[in-house]
Design a protein that fits this description.
The complex is a heterodimer of chains A (about 550) and B (about 100).
Chain A: H1 2-25, H2 31-36, H3 43-54, H4 57-70, H5 75-99, H6 104-111, H7 115-148, H8 152-202, H9 207-225, H10 239-255, H11 257-260, H12 269-305, H13 316-323, E1 326-327, E2 343-344, H14 348-356, H15 361-399, H16 405-427, H17 434-458, H18 464-488, H19 501-517, H20 524-532, E3 539-542, E4 545-548
Antiparallel strand pairs in A: 1-2, 3-4
Chain B: E1 2-4, H1 6-36, H2 38-41, E2 45-46, E3 49-50, H3 51-81, H4 87-95
Antiparallel strand pairs in B: 2-3
Helix pairs in contact in B: 1-3
The chains are: A mainly alpha (about 550), B mainly alpha (about 100).
Chain lengths: ~550, ~100
């Protein structure tokens, strides 16, 4: 294990050096640079950065395991998290780009001409991003802890120091190019092991095509063992829970501030469309591979581990039994390990693959570096978003409008450092399972930002009182449902806490519409601004007429 | 600044909106539609997998990616048709540096 430790550490440090090198090289100078990278990032690379931002420790480590444990029902995560980019790119991104603000709360405040709405949105941004980043830091602690064989708490602290350092130094620009590098590292780490696994099990290096062979054997295997069938739908929850969860993840994705901010970094509406398309290609690569991981791992566990002599299990199982992630007690005492005697934690599926497939220490080290890239890149993007909400939307717009660029940059940097340290302290003792916290963040985003942004862009009649009421009611309904479903045992149509976003979004839309219609229409200026979003940026709408902008501006 | 006909501008908006509605309906069918009819679809096999499983694991995601690229390409085409993308402007867009300077 000594060599493994050195190889893992070297790979992690080498990739960190690369990220920090890029951040230092791009040290932000102007305020606009710090938040949105001067809008000079080409769509393909912006797509990669969105991908790195998006794919967190939960996606990298946990998703394949979720699919393996839930079977068909786990696919709600795959469709939900990718389908969100459809809503985002079609309904929101180009228009938000044309409106030309730095942050989501700033858009809401200016579109609805309402300072209260901006402050509520800033608070919601901070709550959502902060919750999400606690999960990331906890995840990075687990990865560092397991692969470097240090205490999880020490791992978390290492992550905190790194994130605080390069986020504060480089701002968005550093992060955008850093995240391109992180994407490359994490996708290589994710795809290489599953390709080798596919070669070993199916003699085909393309897991996406070949894992069907393995999946097709599950029905017989499951029926022989008499267990819940992998391919049969709605075994883990009702059909409505599947749909509600899928909706929550889609709408939440389209409403997550740290994802939307990415679309402010492109030059034009055209570039926003292309960035969204490229982003989903890069994200899809991981999401299409996760079910393959799930299928191969389940197949190996069913055929090579279950049914073996208890004292003759494959060698790789031992190290995972030691970590408590895998339990192989022969409770029936017949000397053979039955499937029902196996207890598997979903987290081991991706991390154990290099060992299962015997890929050697270099690939295990790469895996560690990839998982770290996933955790750190997402946390970095979240920190920038929190810092922008604090220093731009709250400090600059409400507390000290005369603040100089330098002063605002300083506030931004300090808020990153403070937010990272506080999130890190909470992550030392996380309040719940990582995937659960993440799902709540999505439910909150779909109950608050999704209705406010969609109506803000597409409905000219939506006004300030409408959005304030909509944000508050959406937030309340989402929180209430999560609480009732989780602790009160009250559910509707079998929809549990992770599907709460569908109720929050419905309440948010309805409230915004009803309150807007029963209060004064927005001013002529607002109506013109929103009408202007219908046309590309070469056109300007003014006084009922449409103008082509001259080139010299 | 030169004015363009409000009708032309509205035609542009209508075209774009219609297209987006079509894309969203397709996206809805391959995800929510398949989930709603998961049981009957499971008797069909595709790439060795029951169709409802295939659509959830690959089909829906591939359709989403396809739709986003179709949208990006068709939108560029629509912009050009309405005379909104002249050549040197487009070059500036590619490099992404022209705006905001």
């Amino acid at each position: 294990m000594e060599t493994q430790f050195l190889v893992s550490l070297t790979l992690i440090l080498a990739t960190f050096a690369l990220y920090i090198g890029i951040a230092v090289f791009n040290t932000a100078k102007k305020t606009s640079d710090f938040y949105v990278a001067d809008r000079g990032v080409p769509p393909v690379f912006n797509g990669m950065a969105i991908g790195a931002d998006w794919m967190s420790a939960a996606s990298f480590i946990g998703m394949a395991g979720t699919v393996m444990l839930l079977g068909y029902d786990g696919l709600a995560y795959i469709m939900g998290w990718t389908g969100g980019y459809l809503l985002l790119t079609f309904l929101l991104a180009p228009q938000l780009r044309k409106y030309g603000r730095y942050t989501v709360p700033e858009f809401i405040g200016d579109r609805y001409k309402n300072d209260t709405a901006r402050l509520i949105a800033a608070a919601a941004t901070i709550i959502i991003s902060f919750t999400y980043s606690v999960g990331q830091l906890a995840g990075s602690g687990v990865v560092i802890g397991r692969l470097l064989e240090v205490n999880t708490a020490v791992g978390t602290l290492v992550g905190v120091v790194l994130i605080a350092f390069y986020s504060a130094l480089g701002g968005m620009k550093g992060i955008t190019w850093t995240q391109v590098a992180q994407y490359v590292v994490l996708i290589a780490a994710y795809v290489i092991p599953v390709v080798f696994m596919a070669l070993q099990l199916t003699n085909n290096p393309l897991p996406w095509i070949s894992y069907g062979e393995v999946v097709s054997e599950f029905t017989t295997l499951d029926q022989e063992l008499g267990i819940t069938e992998y391919l049969v739908p709605f075994t883990e929850g009702t059909k409505w829970q599947f749909i509600a969860l899928m909706f929550t993840l889609m709408a939440g994705t389209a409403g997550l501030p740290h994802v939307i901010t990415r679309f402010f970094t492109v030059a034009t509406m055209k570039a926003a469309r292309w960035s969204g398309a490229w982003a989903l290609v890069f994200i899809g690569l991981l999401y299409l591979s996760a079910p393959a991981y799930a299928a191969f791992s389940r197949f190996i566990l069913m055929t090579q581990v279950a049914g073996s002599q208890i004292d003759n299990l494959p060698a790789w199982t031992q190290s995972w039994v030691d970590t408590g992630q895998l339990s192989v007690a022969d409770t029936s005492g017949d000397g053979t390990l039955q499937w029902s005697e196996l207890v598997i934690s979903g987290d081991i599926v991706v991390m154990a693959t290099p060992e299962i497939a015997n890929l050697g220490i270099f690939v295990i080290g790469l895996m560690a570096a990839g998982a770290m890239a996933a955790a750190l890149s997402t946390a970095g993007g979240l920190m920038i978003t929190i810092s922008a909400a604090l220093s731009h939307d709250i400090y600059y717009r409400s507390i000290n409008p005369k603040a100089t660029d330098r002063k605002r940059l300083a506030v931004g940097r300090w808020s990153i450092v403070i937010a990272t340290v506080v999130a890190g302290l909470i992550a030392l003792n996380p309040p719940g399972a990582i995937t659960q916290i993440v799902a709540w963040a999505f439910a909150l985003a779909s109950g608050t930002f999704f209705p406010a942004l969609v109506l803000g862009v597409w409905w000219r009649r939506a006004n300030g009182p409408g959005v304030v009421a909509g944000l508050l009611v959406g937030l309340t309904v989402t929180l209430t449902y999560i609480f009732l479903a989780k602790f009160g045992g009250i559910t509707l149509l079998g929809i549990i806490d992770t599907g709460a976003g569908i109720f929050g979004a419905a309440a948010g839309f309805l409230t915004n519409i009803i309150v807007s219609l029963s209060t004064k229409p927005p001013t002529q200026q607002t109506v013109e601004e929103v009408t202007d979003l219908r046309y590309p940026e070469q056109l300007k709408y003014e006084n009922g007429e449409v103008w082509v902008k001259e080139k010299a501006e | 600044m030169k004015k363009i006909d409000k009708k032309t501008a509205d035609a542009y908006f209508r075209t774009r909106t219609t297209l987006i509605v079509i894309y969203l309906i397709i996206g809805f069918c391959v995800s929510y539609g398949v989930v709603l009819f998961a049981e009957p679809l499971s008797s069909i096999t595709f790439l060795n997998m029951p169709l409802h499983y295939y659509m959830g694991a690959q089909g829906a995601v591939l359709t989403f990616i396809f739709l986003l690229f179709v949208n990006a390409i068709v939108s560029d085409f629509v912009d050009r048709k309405f005379g909104l993308l002249d050549l040197d402007k487009e070059e500036e867009n590619e490099s992404g540096k022209a705006v905001n300077k």
